[in-house]
Structure formats: C-alpha cells, structure tokens
Design brief:
The chain is mostly helical and about 270 residues long. It contains 13 helices and no strands. About 80% of the residues lie in helices and about 0% in strands. The longest helix has about 35 residues. The protein is globular.
C-alpha cells in the first residue's frame, strides 16, 4: 500500500463517516467500480480510531463535562451516559439477530444502490421536520445535559442507527433526522448522534485489535499513520460542515447526492 493510497482512503473514510452519505455504501460502490478494498484490518482499525478522535475533539467540552460529572457521580451526567448506552442497544441487538442478513447486503451491490435512494428520501424529510420545531423547554428543566429526553425518544433514535447497519443507509443522517422528527433541537440532535457513535466505534476498534496486530507489520507504519491523520482531519472537517448545514436549516440539501449516486450506481449495475 502506497502513502498516496493511504491518504486517499483516509480522506474518503473521514468525510463519508460523518457526512450523511454512508461510508459503508461508498465502500460497496468502490469495490464494485474500482475494486477498492480497505487494505487489511490494521488500516480499518487505524482510520476508525482516527474518526473517533474527530468526535472527541469536536465535542471536547461536552466530553470533558461528562468525564468530570461521572467522576463526581452527578445524576444528570450518569443519566445522559445511560441514554447514550441505551441508544446503542437496538444496533447491537439487530446485528446479533440479523448479522447474516447484514453481511449478505454487503455482498449484493444493488442493495446499497437502493439504500442510497432511501437515505436521500430520509434526508429530504428533514425540511419538514425542522419546520415543526422543537418544543420550548425551560433552561433548568432538563439538567446539565438537555435536548434528548425520554426513553422512547432514545430508543427510536437507536432504531434509526440500527437501520444504518445496512450499506447505503447513513448513520448520522438517519439518527439526526429521526431526532428532528421527535422534536429534538437540531444542535442537541447532532450532539447526541455523534456522541452515541463513540461506543460503537470504540467497540468495533477493540474487537479488531487482535487481528490488526498481526496485519500491521506487513502493511507498514507510515501508511497507517498517514491514513489515520487524514481520516481524523477530514472527519473533523466533515463534522463542522455537517453542523453548519444543520444550523442553516438546510440539512435536506444533502439529499440529492445519495439520490444521484444511487441512481448512477444502479444504472451501472443494470447495464453491466
């Protein structure tokens, strides 16, 4: 693997991980069109850990507050951490029960093409969801971590994340749009979506570490480092773009990209 390839793959991973366009769907498209595959488990671990760093940097103040509050046994902090953990249960359960179905979807390129169209449709509904607005809440009504309230709301956001196990369904897009429809304020929706990705990314990284240790020497240190740095930098940029568009109430404008990509990809598969 060359350093140039590592940089390109790191950039692609960083952007598609956090923009609502599905990184897994892009991997399927890349494999079908160009024969591109992530070069081994070691590289996957490196770039996934880098995207985790992007989230921690982007939300460093909130992460710091959570860490301080957890040490002090603050009830509001532990409640918020519990909601983040609960939001990850549907995805874990879905993969445990439907893991074979999810794996089969990665082997069927057309499934990713259709899923891109679904993602575009979900993103387009954000315009109507934003117009509904979030209910007004008094500043002291929800403690130090306001925004996402209620077990039912959290579980539905978690179900949206579970759908993103399938390639072509955007995790960030579906979870944020679901939160918007549940009348969560946009900034809180984005924050919860990104923070709830931390346990998922960290868990996947830890599970891959054993295999990565065996593959790393063959791949080389330089491509791993460069790919990780590229993924972290572009991941942070993607988060900022994501938040800027969301604040501008223009989240639905992401929709044309997955629509166009899905249609072109399905057309390519049909003609091929």
């Amino acid at each position: 693997m060359t350093t140039w390839e590592a940089l390109v793959l790191g950039v692609v991973q960083g952007f598609t991980e956090f923009l609502p366009v599905s990184s897994s769907g892009h991997l399927v498209v890349g494999q079908a069109l160009l024969g591109i595959e992530l070069p081994g488990v070691a590289f996957e671990v490196a770039v996934h850990f880098a995207t985790l760093v992007s989230v921690l940097v982007a939300y460093r103040r909130r992460v710091g507050a959570l860490m301080r509050g957890s040490v002090r046994l603050d009830p509001g902090t532990w409640r918020y951490l519990g909601l983040i953990a609960l939001a990850n249960v549907p995805a874990a359960a879905a993969y445990f029960l439907l893991g074979d179905v999810v794996d089969a979807a990665f082997e069927a390129p057309a499934a990713a093409g259709v899923a891109f169209l679904v993602t575009g449709g979900v993103l387009w509904t954000a315009r109507a969801a934003v117009r509904r607005g979030a209910p007004r809440v008094e500043p002291d009504a929800s403690g130090p971590f306001p925004g996402v309230r209620g077990l039912g709301v959290v579980m539905l956001i978690g179900v949206a994340q579970a759908l993103a196990l399938f390639p072509g369904i955007s995790r960030s897009g579906t979870t944020v749009v679901a939160a918007l429809w549940l009348r969560v304020e946009s900034a809180d929706a984005a924050e919860f979506s990104f923070l709830m990705s931390v346990p998922a990314i960290l868990g996947a990284t830890l599970l891959q570490l054993v295999d990565a240790g065996e593959a790393a020497p063959a791949l080389g240190t330089t491509p791993l480092v460069l790919g990780a740095v590229a993924a972290a930098a572009t991941g942070l940029l993607a988060i900022r773009i994501f938040l800027t568009v969301l604040r501008a109430r223009s989240f639905h404008r992401f929709a044309p990209y997955p629509w166009i990509l899905g249609l072109l990809f399905l057309g390519y598969l049909w003609l091929g």
